[in-house]
Automatic annotation (TrEMBL):
Record lineage: Bacteria, Pseudomonadati, Pseudomonadota, Gammaproteobacteria, OMG group
Membrane topology: Multi-pass membrane protein
Reported function: Required for the export of heme to the periplasm for the biogenesis of c-type cytochromes.
Family the entry assigns: Belongs to the CcmC/CycZ/HelC family.
Name of the gene encoding the protein in the UniProt record: ccmC
GO molecular function, one term: heme transmembrane transporter activity
Name listed for the protein in its UniProt record: Heme exporter protein C
Annotated TM spans: 21-44, 64-84, 91-115, 127-148, 160-181, 201-224
Pfam families: Cytochrom_C_asm
Protein's GO biological process: cytochrome complex assembly
Length: 244
């Protein structure tokens, strides 16, 4: 496992391994998102209270979950870069930030659309909504800081530090509905506990969450590969790939 970790930490082995992995991820992403979308919009039952508007859940919940996971992945990459100075970790951090920011923005937008018929308002300064907005700004901060001087190790360390420090916001998002009185409902989705919703609604949600994870990893790996080629364009192995 340790040797595999070091192998993936080198640009060329990562590029070669991901070249075989990417088509599989792409196919699985299309399958899961297609099946999940058709199931959620065409066959899942409406909620007895919220009616058809509950179908926003099938985009809102997966985007929120994967956005938080993407920040965790970004922060872990930042910690790896700070401790071991592994170049691929800096690239992984840089490439995860735009995807995480997009997913967080999608979660905020769909939450606002869902909140209008549910709460009667597009936005309230609810603890979970506010902490999720902070998550979005953390992603933006990482993007802006990393682009200040591309390739600089000092900027890479500063970006990694910001990503790691920002981890304190994830427990706030997770437990905000338990710590404070909020309009946002408590978590209704878990893979380790009995679902609080009918299985006819829970199963398509599981498929959509899996599809969003697959989408994240596909786009993330693709972005990492592109960034590797940009940074290693002078390397002999990159020239060999272009010649082939």
């Amino acid at each position: 496992m340790w040797s595999l970790f070091h192998k993936l930490g080198s640009p060329r082995p990562f590029y070669e391994i991901s070249d075989r992995l990417l088509p599989i991820l792409g196919c699985l992403t299309v399958i899961f998102l297609s099946v999940g979308t058709i199931w959620a919009l065409g066959f899942a039952p409406p909620d007895y209270q919220q009616g058809e508007s509950v179908r926003i859940m099938y985009v809102h919940v997966p985007s929120a979950i994967v956005a938080q996971s993407s920040y965790m992945i970004m922060a872990i990459a930042g910690a790896v870069f700070l401790i071991w100075r592994i170049k691929i970790a800096d690239i992984a951090l840089q490439c995860a930030a735009p995807i995480g920011a997009s997913l967080t923005l999608l979660a905020l937008a769909t939450g606002a659309i869902w909140g209008k018929p549910t709460w009667g308002a597009w936005w309230v300064w609810d603890a979970r909504l506010t902490s999720t907005l902070i998550l979005f700004f953390l992603f933006i901060g990482v993007i802006v800081l990393r682009s200040a001087k591309e390739g600089s190790e000092a900027v890479g360390r500063a970006t990694a530090t910001l990503a790691v420090v920002g981890l304190v916001n994830l427990p706030v998002i997770k437990f905000s509905v338990d710590w404070w009185f909020t309009l946002h409902q408590s978590s209704s989705f878990s893979l380790t506990e009995k679902p609080s919703m009918p299985v006819e609604m829970w199963l398509p949600l599981v498929v959509m969450v899996a599809g969003f994870y697959l989408f994240f990893f596909y786009v993330w790996i693709f972005s990492v590969r592109t960034e590797i080629l940009k940074r290693e364009y002078r390397s002999q192995w990159v020239r060999f790939i272009h010649d082939v």
